[in-house]
What does this fold into?
Amino acid sequence: MKYVTWIILIVFVAVLISVGFLIASRVDYFMYEKQVVSFVAKGIQDGAIVRYNGKSVLVNKYNFEVMCGKLLTITEREKIHKVKEYDRDREIIIEVDDRNYVVIMPLERSKAVYMETVLDGKRRYFYVSDKYRLHERVITYSRPEGFYGPNTLLDDSK
It folds into this structure.
């Protein structure tokens, strides 16, 4: 009888821990979505700077809104805990302020990327498959000529 009680207790605790992890992951998912909306709103209102290939570009609000709407809300992104090696010369930084930025890190010999998001100070890492071509699409929206109107090329003398 004593062993049966322990087994039931262990199974009950395991079920509670599993439910706790499921609830925590859903809460994190909803918080991420809320923080993405806040990030996009701040970028549209205050402007966003995209840094790549030694250039800094102030992205206009139309390009920024479409870029974030298509790139930051990909539901097939895979949350990861550690980023492997990547080419730092090819990374793209999308910055709204010090506490809100996204780093796109392309992988070697692939169009897949790692994506580091820091939204309201909370850091998350994702893997996004090559079918979305994130790296190419961000560059397309943030070029000085832009996609939906011109962006402003900033002086990098700072």
